[in-house]
Design goal:
- The chain is α+β, with helices and mostly antiparallel strands and 934 residues long.
- A hairpin with a 4-residue loop joins strand 28 and strand 29 (615-616).
- Helix 17 crosses helix 18 and helix 18 (701-710) crosses helix 19 (722-740).
- Strands 28, 29, 30, 31, 32, 33, 34 and 35 form an 8-stranded antiparallel beta sheet that branches. Strands 10, 11, 12, 13, 14, 15 and 18 form a 7-stranded mixed beta sheet that branches. A 5-stranded antiparallel beta sheet has the order 21-20-24-22-23.
- The mean pLDDT is 89.
- The protein binds one RNA strand of 85 nucleotides through helix 7, strand 11, strand 15, helix 10 and strand 33.
RNA sequence: GCUCGGGUGGCGGAAUUGGCAGACGCGCCGGAUUUAGGUUCCGGUUCCGAAAGGAGUGCAGGUUCGAUUCCUGUCCCGAGCACCA
């Protein structure tokens, strides 16, 4: 069991209640633990971990140091220690990037200062600091990762998020994009979850194309997945933030005046000069929130006064800026092909730009019939000299070859995934083991300095500025350090590091990093700590890691879908880095993953009425519902009338007022009023939350456990039902009565070893009379086969996680026991053993009564079944005529086709139904059925 | 719009490989016990039909001796992504 307790939810609550998050966390963990223990989960509590415990986060920080001291070698596709990169630079195997050299002389590693070296390496490390536009959430007072922003709002709390340039820590997850994509192939995950990850990683294959600019030597690179449509590119669009569109830079290419014959509609706000237009448009677009930009997809933009040259036909095309092109993807510039792209088409229509067809719906068919543009599907190239009549896929490949041959383009793969923004301006997280130096560079903390503990702050609240709360811990932040150089023998990576200067030692001034890690850090590797939770020398012993993960990853991981692109992606990334560094034996952490379905609140029926109180059928209600706080303080569903737009409010109706009519539910009182029937996610505001404590109080932990598993398939979303809990509660009571006897005398009998039976155990035992014993023997005989079938079913169902059918199997068996006069104790013990994983408390109690021993049922071996005893000796075999069930015949188990056919033809009902028709064919599936074709 | 799931009684669901559709539970109906209610027990409960019988797994087709299961088309519901070039 692990408590992932750093992060925003705990901290937000701490702020609200003005209590230190450490206190809140401890209290919540204690409460959760008590609840889990009340339910009776068999967790190994010796392996309890807590991500906020310094003994735990010491290793989170250690893994961060591994990321920091690792670079991704794209030649081998693997992460490698930074010292190996240093060696490549030092030996000259790898040239020093040109930006570090002066125009006169290229610099050598040995000539570089420590500061220069750090700056150089920063560009390679998997953990790096960079100034970039990030998601800043003012309400939370922190930046957020892309994965934590949904529709322009924070995932936690739903607050608005804005783009803002800030200096932040990033993790180079993009380097692993292809590995993360490929790794999905061999995992036993649901297709939908793999799809979500693939979407997020977002690989697309295409080409870079270089466009020259008319009258300039510069080149603009665009990324396209449809190089085959290059002949249809009639204009170009840059993102408003594209460097080429910068007016403020001294070397701007944007002309001072509009070129001759520039249409007025190309000039944003009918500006007098292109520079004014571009600046005005940039200003407008930066004022728009992420959300507005997503919602209002109406095309806007302005001409820049620049023309580009289409490299395939030398055509001069106008260059625009528009916010439908994003700086963050591809090269931030596109070639616009309005004939074959919806967005370009819309833009072209608005700005009156030429639209040309270069893909036909049939080979050589461009002229035969007019097609409606834009045509986005694949077809055959047309009006494109060099690739004409080739199907799209081939045209694409051929065009790339042509571009590469002429040096005006190249094959290119692009990913949507961005680097992981890894720092937060909050208190409640792991401190970074990083020290900033006065020259603006930073060094990692020595491993011997870990854990770097979070300082106790009484004022842990956000500062209201972009400064993190830890910036207030001056004594903690400002330190004197000694930089220890790279020492291949000393530290695992031979990397340079800092340690706090000892008393009397002269150090240099340093400042600790005051940002903290995001909540995902601790949960990225906790499964590895479970394997070896108390190890103080390593995050996990390699032998134990191999033993449990056996080179393949976790056998079965059960979790919610909400982690699809957060935890599950981050974790895989960290794991792959650890794998590359030889720290773990498997390339993937989670081999098999099952998403449990959410349990919704109890089913609700909602009838709609106008404010005046007139009931309306569901068909009249707009399907876009909203909610508001009703007069009673509860959340109320509101919508509007499709016809009149009038406000409608939803009223919850008790089930007894509702009946089913055809495909819909209606009010019993007025069957013309159709109502909505569905279940909703449990939420405090809706008031449909089921508290496990209440269920345990009323029905016991076993009933709660049993019902959760009985409701339906594990993966499925399903509604809670209180009467359903009563159902499994009754089942447990029937088990109790069968085995304990309840108010009736107990009926469990034990063979006395000489063909008779005795009732009860110890001094109270009495032998059954011969007449009773005869009945008991018959009962034992009749229950034997059902018992073996039940063992087989329950065992198999547990293995395939089909707990609902396992429980129904036990219910059937228990019902069979209830019908017996005497219950042989082997049947009772078997039922209890099978029931124990589901309802351990009652099973343990009854087992103790039954065996009069203190031995726990958990130590009793799992029952085995005998395949022979799982089938009946005589079968009631269905007989079909032309595939339609027409009767049954009793035959011995394992009979051959001939025997069964003879028996069937002798059967009166079958004869009658055959009505003398000749049998053309007999299909017999052994022990399943016989089909007579006439 | 794109991608992935899914559609079976009044409800949750079962049918493991193409072979008896509706297991098990809830609810409902009837009966027994009870002064009564509750509990418990027994019986019934897919739909139409008094019955015989017929229909039936979203809808329309197809393959097959046989389809909830496989194929094609289509509708609906859910989830995710979405101006990603």
């Amino acid at each position: 069991m692990g408590w992932d307790a750093f992060g925003l939810p705990a901290e937000q609550y701490a702020i609200k209640t003005d209590t230190h998050p450490g206190v809140i966390t401890r209290k919540n963990i204690d409460r959760f633990r008590a609840q889990l223990q009340a339910i009776g989960f068999s967790y190994d509590w010796d392996r309890e971990v807590n991500t906020t415990d310094p003994l735990y986060y010491r290793w989170t920080q250690w893994i961060f140091l591994q990321l920091y001291n690792t670079w991704f070698d794209s030649a081998t596709g693997r992460g490698r220690p930074i010292r190996e990169l240093v060696a490549e630079f030092a030996t000259g195997l790898r040239p020093i990037p040109v930006e570090f050299s002066t125009p006169e002389k290229s610099i050598a590693w040995t000539d570089m200062t420590a500061s220069q070296r750090r700056k150089l390496l920063s560009g390679y490390r998997l953990a790096y600091e960079v100034e970039a536009p990030v998601n800043w959430c003012p309400a939370l007072g922190t930046v957020l990762a892309n994965e934590e922003v949904i529709d322009g709002k924070s995932e936690v709390g739903g607050f608005p998020v804005e783009r803002r340039p800030m200096r932040q820590w990033m993790l180079r997850i993009t380097a692993y994009a292809q590995r993360l994509l490929d790794g999905l192939e061999n995992l036993e995950w649901s297709e939908s979850l793999k799809q979500m990850q693939r979407n997020w990683i977002g690989r697309s294959d295409g080409a870079l194309v270089y466009f020259g600019l008319a009258g300039h030597s510069q080149v603009v690179t665009v990324f396209t997945t449809r190089p085959d449509t290059l002949f249809g590119a009639t204009y170009m669009v840059l993102a408003p933030e594209h460097p080429l569109a910068s007016v403020t830079s001294g070397r701007t290419l944007i002309p001072e005046d509009w070129p001759a014959e520039t249409p007025d509609c190309w000039k944003y706000n009918t500006a007098k000069t292109p520079r004014q237009a571009v600046q005005a448009y940039q200003q407008w677009t930066s004022s728009r929130s992420e959300r507005q930009r997503q919602e209002e997809t109406d095309k806007t933009g302005t001409f820049t006064g620049i023309f580009a040259i289409n490299p395939v036909n030398g055509r001069k095309i106008p260059v625009f800026i528009s916010d439908y092109v994003l700086m963050g993807y591809g090269s931030g510039a596109i070639m616009a092909v309005p004939g074959h792209d919806r967005r370009d088409f819309d833009f072209a229509c608005k700005f009156d730009l030429p639209i040309e067809q270069v893909v036909a719906q049939s080979p050589r068919g461009a002229a035969d019939k007019p097609v409606e543009l834009p045509l986005e599907q694949d077809g055959w190239a047309t009006n494109s000299p060099g690739i004409n009549d080739l199907p799209t896929a081939e045209a694409r490949a051929k065009m790339i070859d042509l571009l590469e041959a002429r040096g005006v383009g190249q094959r290119q793969v692009n990913f949507k995934i961005r680097d992981w923004l890894f720092s937060r301006q909050r208190y409640w997280g792991e401190p970074f083991p990083i020290v900033h130096l006065t020259d603006g560079t930073h060094v990692p903390l020595a491993e011997s300095e870990l854990p770097l503990e979070l300082p106790q702050l009484t004022d842990f609240k956000p500062t209201g500025t972009m400064d993190p709360p830890l910036s207030k811990a001056l004594a903690w932040r400002d330190i004197s350090v000694v930089i220890e150089p790279a020492d291949p023998a000393g530290s695992p990576h031979g990397a340079e590091h800092a340690r706090v200067a000892r008393p009397g030692e002269t150090g240099i001034p340093g400042r600790r990093e005051v940002n903290t890690m995001p909540q995902w850090a601790g949960s990225c590797w906790y499964y590895l700590r479970y394997l070896d939770p108390h190890n103080v020398r390593r995050f996990c012993d390699p032998e134990l890691e191999k033993f449990w993960m056996h080179g393949r990853g976790i056998d079965l991981y059960i979790g919610g879908v909400e982690h699809a692109v957060l935890h599950l992606l981050y974790s895989r990334f960290w794991h792959k880095v650890l794998f590359d560094l030889g720290q773990v034996s498997s390339d993937e952490p989670f081999h098999r993953l099952v998403n449990q379905g959410l349990i919704l609140g109890e089913a609700e029926y909602t009838a709609f009425a106008t404010e005046a109180g007139r009931m309306v059928p569901l068909a009249e209600v707009d399907t876009n519902w909203d909610s508001r706080l009703g007069p009673d303080g509860k959340t109320q569903i509101i919508s509007k009338s499709r016809q009149t737009g009038e406000l409608l409010t939803g009223r919850p109706c008790p089930p007894e007022e509702i009946e089913k009519r055809g495909d819909s539910f209606v009010l019993k009182a007025d069957s013309t009023i159709t109502v909505d029937a569905r279940s909703f996610k449990m939420s405090k505001s809706r008031g449909n939350v089921v508290n496990p404590d209440d269920v345990i109080r009323d029905y016991g932990a076993d009933s709660l456990r049993l019902f959760e598993m009985f409701m339906g398939p594990l993966e499925q979303v399903k509604p809670w039902s209180t009467t359903g809990v009563e159902g499994v509660y009754r089942f447990l009571q029937r088990v109790w009565r069968n085995i304990n006897g309840g108010d009736e005398p107990c009926r469990v009998v034990i063979p006395d070893g000489v063909g008779g039976w005795q009732l009860g155990r110890g001094p109270m035992a009495r032998p059954l009379t011969p007449a009773e014993a005869a009945v008991a023997t018959a009962d034992a005989e009749s229950i034997l086969r059902p018992m073996h079938r039940t063992i087989r079913k329950v065992t198999g169902d547990i293995e395939r996680l089909a707990f609902n059918t396992a429980i129904s199997g036990m219910m059937e068996f228990n019902n069979a026991l209830a019908k017996l006069t005497w219950i042989p104790d082997i049947a009772a013990r078997t039922l209890l053993r099978l029931l124990e994983p589901f309802a351990p408390h009652i099973a343990e109690e009854l087992h103790e009564q039954l065996t009069a021993s203190a031995q726990s049922i958990m130590t009793v071996a799992w029952p085995q079944w005998d395949e022979e005893l799982c089938t009946d000796s005589e079968l009631d075999l269905p007989v079909q005529i032309n595939g339609k069930l027409s009767g049954r015949v009793k035959v011995a188990n394992g009979s051959d086709a001939e025997t069964v056919a003879i028996a069937a033809l002798r059967d009166e009902i079958i004869q009658q139904k055959l009505a003398g028709r000749a049998i053309k064919k007999k299909v017999y599936i052994k022990d399943r059925m016989l089909n007579l074709v006439v």
